[in-house]
Every structure is written in C-alpha cells, then in structure tokens.
Amino acid sequence: MRKLLLIGTMGALLALLVSACGGSSGGGGSISVAQEGEGKPTAASEICEEEPVVGGNLTYARQLEVVTLNPREIKNGNGDIFADEMLYSGLVRNDPDGSAKVVPALAEKWDVSKDGLTYTFTLKPGIKYSDGSPITAEDIAWNMEQFADPETNVSLPSLGEGIKKISAPDKSTVVVELEYPVAAFLYNIAVFPAFVVPKDKVEAEGDAFWKHPVSSGPFVMKEFASGSHITFEKNPNYFEKGKPYVQTMRWNFVPNSNTRVLELKSGQANLADGIPFNQVESLQGESGVTIQQVEFPQEAMLILNNKVKALGDVHVRRAISLAINREQLNEAVFRGTGTVPNSVIQKFELDASDQEVPPFEFNVGKAKEEMAKSKFANGFSVSMKYPAGFDYYKQLSLLLQAELKEIGVNVKLEEEEAATIAEQWLEGEFEMTFPFAGTSSDIPVPDEYASLFALPEAELDGFKSFWTNDEAKKLVQKFISNTDEATRKPEWKVIQELFNEEMPSLNVMDYPLINGHESNICGTKANGLGVDQLQETWVGKASS
Amino acid sequence: MLVYLVKRLIVSIVVLLGIALGTFLMIHLIPGDPAKIQLGVHATPEAVAHLHKEWGLDKSLPQQFWIYLGNIVTFDFGQSTAFNSGVSELVGDRVTPTAVVLIYGILISLVIGVPLAIWAALRQGGWIDNAIRVTTTFTFAMPPFWLGLMLALLLGYKLGWFPVSGYETGISGILRTCTLPALTVGLGLLVIVVRNLRANLVTVLHSDYIEAARARGYSELRVVSKHAMRNSIVGLITILASLFGFIVGLLVLVESVFRIPGAGTLLVQAVSKRDYQLVQTLVFLSGAFVVIIGFLADFAYAWLDPRIRLAGRS
Question: Which of A20, A75, A241, A428 has the most crowded CB, counting CB atoms within 10 A?
C-alpha cells in the first residue's frame, strides 16, 4: 500500500514534467499569418463566408486591464483606450477597415474652408445616447471644448492645440475654428480624448458618471470589476444600424501571456491579444485557433543620446544602423512578423515606399567605413538599457550587442524595470535605451512623432535624443500645417529621407500586434491604430 | 500574563512604525515618478507639475510622511494615483480573493502535510521518512510560476477538471476556481509544514511524558494527536507567520498565473506605477497582519504552555 502511494506520487510528478516538454519549442522560420488591419477580415473558414450571426457573447482575454473609463484622463494606456473605443464615438473615426482614412462617425459629412481654418461638421440625423437622449450639436461642442482644454484633456493635450473657437450654430451643425492650419486635425479628433459624452450628466454626477457612463459607442458598460473583468452589452442606439452583431461581451484582464494562450486554447476565451512571438507557431498548429497579425504604427525604437560624444557623431549613428542585421532579427525575435523599416519613426501610409526610400541596409563593410570617417574609428564602449519583463527585448538586446561588437562598439547591457527605464529616459539619464516596449503613434499619420522629434515646442528634446536640426524643424513645421493633401506626401518623403540621413535614433524593427481567436469568430478587424473593431465581429456557427 | 501581553503590544507598535517609515522611504527613494509614468511621452514639465499638485507630491517628504501616518490612524488611506478609486475601496475588493487562496492553500498544505509529517516522524529514519522528505523538497524546488502553469495545463486544459484561470465567489465557485491556485501554494508550503512538524514531533516523541502516555496504554493515535501534536504545532504557526513575506511572493505569482484579482497583483502593479499611497498601504497592512499574527501566536503560546506564561512575569 505504501509502495503504491509512493509510486503514484512520483508518477504524477513525472507526468507533470513530461507534459512541460511536450509543447513545440519554436525554432526559426517565418510564419504565414492572416494580415489584418489592411482591410481584409479573417476568413479562416467557410463559417465566415456566411451572413453575420446576430447575438451571442464574446469573451476576450486582454493583456492590459481597464482602470478608468474617462477618455480624457487615461491611466493605463491601451487598456483604457480600447475600452473607450467600445463605449464612445467622436465626430469622425479612423477607418474600421484599417486604412489611414478618416471616415464619418457621429458627423455624416464635413467641409473645410479654403484656408484650412474652419471645419463645419453636419451631424447624422437622429443620433442618440444609449439612454435614449439625443446627441445634440451643443453636447458635441462642449465635448470638443473639453478636448481643447489641457486642464480637462490630461491624456493627449497636444492633439487639442490650435483650436480657437467651437460653436453649434444649429441643432445639427458643429463648427470648429482653428488659430492656424493643422494638417492632422481630423486625425486628432478621431481619437479617444475627443469622444462624446452627455454634458448634463457629466456635470451633474462628476466622477461618479465614469463608473456607469452613458454610451455614444457600439456598447454599453454593464459591469466593471477592477482587476478582474469588464462586461459590455449592445447599445441599441448605436449610430451604425445593425451593429454590433454580438449581444454581450466580456473582457477578462489576463496579464500573464501563458494564461492568455491557455484560455484561448481551452475555449475559456474566444479571443486573446498579445500572443507572444514564441508561441505563435504552436498556436498555429492548433485546429480551431486562428492567428491575426495587426499592423499599426509601432516600432522597437532605440534612442541614442546624442549628448554622448560618440553618439553625437552622425557617422557613428549611421554605422550602428548599418551593423544591424534586421532580417535576421526579424526571424529570430519576431518570427518573421516584423517589417524592416525605411523610416526612423513608425511606418505610415503616407511614407514613401521601399522602392523610393530603401529600407535600412545591413552592411558591415559600409558600417566600418562610417566608423572610419568618424572620430571614433577605434570603437568605444556604451551602455544600452532595455525594459525587463519582455523576453523578446532581452533576445533583441543580446543580438544587438553581438552585432555591434563587430564594428568595435562594446555594448554593456542594462536591464531595467519599465517605470525606471521610462523615468531615466525622460531625465536623459542614459546612453542608448529602449524607453518603451513598443513605441506607437496615437494617430495614423507621421505628424505626432515628427513633431516630438523635430520641434522644440514639443518640449521633448528630440524625443530625448537631444538631436536638433534646423532644416528638420523648418520642414516639419511646414508639414504639420500643410492641409493640401496632394503636397503632403512629397513633403513627407523629404522629411523621411532627412531623418534617415541624420539617424537621430534607431528604428530597429516595425512590428505588429499578434492576436488570436477561435476559428469560428468572424469579422475580426482592427483600425489603422490597431484598435479591435469588435462592433464588426460575430460568432459564427461552430463547425462540428 | 497581562504584563507579558502589554510588553508584546508595545513592541508590536514600535515594529509597525518602523514598517511604515521603511516602506515610505523605500518607495519614495527609488527612481520613477508616477506622473511621468502615467503621461509617458506627453510628460511635459507643466503636465507633470499639474499631476504632482493634484496628488500632493509637491509637498516635502516629511510633510508627506506625516500625512501618511495621519491616514493610517484614521483608516483613510487616501486616493490611488494608478487606479481610479480610493485606496481603502481598492484594497477591500482585492483582499478577499487573496485571503481565500491563502487560507485554502494553507489548509491544503496542512491536510497533506500533517499526516505526512506524522507518518515520517513515526517511521523516523526509514525509507518512508526519506521518500517524504525528498518529495516535499522536490515540490518546494519547483518554481511556483511553472508549477501553477503545469497544474493549469494538466488538470485544467488536458483533463478539464478545473477552469485554467479565473475567480468566482460562492462555495462552488471557490472550489472550482481556487483549487488549482491553492494547490500551487499548498505544494510550495508543503515542505515547510512537513519538515518543521516532523522535526518537532521527533523531538517530542522521545520525551518522557510520551513514554508515560504509551505506558498508560493509550493508542498511538491518541498519543500523537492529543499529547505530541500540542507541543509541536505552535512551532509551525511561528514559522508560517515569519515566512509571510515568502508567502506573499508565492501568492503574487499564483495570482498572475491563475488570473485571481487579488492584493498580490495589486501590489506589483502599484510598485510598477509608483502609486505611493497604494504601495505604502498594502505593505503596511501586510506588516500589520504579520505583527498581529505574531501577537496572537504569543498569546496562544502563553495560553497553551504555562511555562512561557510564568516566565514572562518580570
């Protein structure tokens, strides 16, 4: 009896060990995944060729939790933003099919004056909040004022700059007057700080309103348990008739990536975001699970502190970029899901193509030539910080260290906790650093990041690279106020090329979000900023 | 007895003050500014100053410490900067799941560990004893993160006996969702329970009064459970209380793997976001919990063991 018990225990423990080794360990090799965010919904099976099914529930395992539902006082980045996108709408929105176009939301059309200073929006008729009260032009005007005021718009006050006057001349018209032309104005108001909520209720209830907000978006919040989950219900008064398709939605907050993957595999969740790169292959092998690659302007940005003597030399910066084998990094770290960049900042639709502006080259010979041209031909030592808690950043940094050694740059790696690394970046206390795990733009055009890098008025010291360039400053200032669509693209190409020449910091890789979902979940789209368009999603009839 | 208890009370208060001061200094002195963390790339000096003023961070450190002490005494723990609610409310919501997993975990470690310890002690030196000690060290050595995932994979995903993650209330909900996390905690604590209890039992079982009890004809079961255990179990309580820090660490990992919305995860998030009020409150409350447990343990000793009670009289 005792013998049996002991053998039983040892056996159980061995079984645990063996099951751990059972999963496939990802090797190299790129994977083919359904490309998302570029207009094509996943068509993983014939289920999705059918008509959308109305009703049902979606359970989504999310990596970031929702902390607050006030879109003008975001506390947890995308955790809050993605929830706000489900609850609220603005005058306009980013194309749900993933292009960089701005399309109607609460406004059905708009006119821009010739001087680019006056925007006149005509509201859709009969728009209502989730509680049935009408969404009036006055309400929207008040929301725009909140957006323009840095006291209330704490999340992204820079997007609200330049607004002179907002008025509602009649029930269905909103007029916004600018002090100076802002080329990205429509993009600026398409995002979360410009979302619309009922003025009278917010003023009456104050902070309590945000615990149970009234919606102008596809869903209404039903229940919100901090640290655990949030549940939504279809908003019957959503301006897009017939959508959302699902009746209810539940987002579970699952910060642990292994748990998210397990929940998806076991069917506890229909969708999961933030699939780690090294688990993509094993998930692809599962029948019943589809991987979705969401392209949006995100890069692994390595900031070079130009105040460090060696890094202040443009030849050194170029050499470093030339020494990086981005193709190999893409395979090893991002499992082929990344794109070799041709721009210092993130990838935008407005960018010049790879044929016009070539992607960053890998050429150790040229790198050594650049080093020879610099004052640091014999190489130098430098420290590189990267955020802890992301195994792909650790891998990336180790590979970079090895590559830079080839050209005589000795990199000392320093792993820091995310909050510390961000603080040190802001204080300029670093030599080379990845300030964030993934640096992404808030709008689908280069205006925001070009300004953050080149304009002193952004107060960010060249995105803390301490790089300054008068020509870049002049070009960017002109670019962000040029409202002529036709000339924006060629103007941006010149700036893109200048940034690449100057290389103030390095774009190591443009890379996407990897999400996963059960194969019978259809209509999984994301807009150009990677935000899930769950009002387009439906639960197809599961195949037997 | 009263004098003894009053002395212990005074010491406890001093320890609590030390914890308050220590936590305050540590969280304020490490790099990282909660305003800059929240604002990210949009952390202009004006925006940062605005948030500092709103959160009372523009005051001097001694001033902030006084306010913090005042908060503790009035049980008003202030506003969380990382989350959208008051600290008391936040902590209150999150403590229950953690407490559930903790108690369930300790229960499992006792239910499995006590019989194993008795068995090992009674067969001291034999191969059963060795097998038990090796196996429990084995479960202790397994990283809890990995152990939890393996349990979720095996018992949750492959066998489908339990959900792989989540937390539900109610008796059936807790049994369904908290068994795997509690099992992870329990297996991690098992070695402490087994070794400690076994060691105490081995010592006690060789005592004269145990021989006397056996001589009186009592069954082995009665000898062990009534006479030997009473002397052995108090040591176990002390060890568990003193390992509270380790247990909190275990809970944080388990909460992460099994998606339990508990106070462990809250603490980690609070530190990452430098939410001073929340961190200080959570650490202080954990410290207070240990101190109270210690105080109650001392009280239990004094009650169970007349020798301690009498020795405490100065």
Answer: A75
Residues of B in contact with A160 (CB under 8 A): none
Tell whether omega for the bond before A244 is within 30 degrees of 0, i.e. cis. yes
Whether B151 contacts chain A with CB within 8 A: yes
Say if A440 is an interface residue toward chain B (CB within 8 Å).
no
CA distance B282 to B290: 12
3-class secondary structure per residue, A311-330 = CCCHHHHHHHHHCCCHHHHH
- Other CB atoms within 10 Å distance of the CB of residue A394: 16
C-alpha–C-alpha distance, residues A36 and A512, integer Å: 10
Ranges of residues in chain B whose predicted pLDDT is under 70? 1, 308-309, 311-314
Q: What is the token pair recorded at A515?
A: 């999400």
Report CB contact under 8 Å: B31, A424. Answer: yes
Tokens 């650790």 belong to residue = A394
All residues of chain A having their beta carbon less than 8 Å from the beta carbon of residue B120 are: none
Give the residue on A whose Cα is nearest the Cα of B151: A16
* Alpha-carbon gap: A458 to the closest alpha carbon of chain B (Å): 8
Cα A48 to the center of its chain, rounded Å: 26
Minimal CA separation from A469 to chain B, in Å: 20
pLDDT on residue A40: 38
Question: How many Cβ pairs closer than 8 A exist between chain A and B?
Answer: 133
Residues B130-144 pLDDT 10s: 888 888 888 888 888
- Residue B216 structural domain: 98-261
Give the angle A173-A205-B51 at the CA atoms, nearest 5°: 90
Q: How far is A37 from chain B (nearest CA, A)?
A: 25
Taking the C-alpha atoms of residue B237 and residue B199, their distance in angstroms, rounded to an integer, is: 14
Chain A touched by B130 (CB under 8 Å): no
Q: Which residues of chain A have pLDDT under 50?
A: 8, 11-43, 544
Phi and psi at A350, nearest 5°, equal: -75, -15
Q: How far is B259 from chain A (nearest CA, A)?
A: 6
Q: Do B258 and A259 touch (CB under 8 A)?
A: yes
Tell whether A77 lies on the interface with B, counting CB pairs under 8 A. yes
User: Is the Cβ of B90 closer than 8 Å to some Cβ of chain A?
Assistant: yes
In a domain, B270, yes or no: no
Quick check: helix, strand or coil at residue A160? helix
A154, A158, A254 ranked by CB distance to B259: nearest: A254
Residue A124 is classified by DSSP as P
Name the amino acid, one letter, at A27: G
Residue B280 and residue B20 in contact, taking contact as beta carbons nearer than 8 Å: yes
Residue in A closest to B50 by C-alpha: A151
Give tens-digit pLDDT for A283-329.
988 888 999 999 999 999 999 999 999 999 999 999 999 999 999 99
CA dist., res. B34 & res. A322, Å (int)? 37
Over residues A409-428, the pLDDT tens digits come to 999 999 998 888 988 998 99
Residue B9 lies in a domain: no
Q: Domain with B192 in it: what CATH number?
A: 1.10.3720.10
Residue A10 forms contact with B (CB below 8 Å): yes
CB A528 within 8 A of CB A443: no
Helices (H), A240-313: 257-266, 280-284
Residue B297: inside a domain: no
Does residue B146 sit within a domain?
yes
How many domains does chain B divide into?
1
To the nearest 10 degrees (0 to 180), the angle between helices B244-258 and A257-266 is 40
Q: In angstroms, rounded to a whole number, what is the distance separating the alpha carbons of residues A243 and A418? A: 39
CB A253 within 8 A of CB A78: no
3-state secondary structure of A534: helix
What the block records as the tokens of A486 is: 């036709």
Question: Please, what is the angle between helix B244-258 and helix B263-272, to 10°?
Answer: 90
Q: Do A417 and B166 touch (CB under 8 A)?
A: no
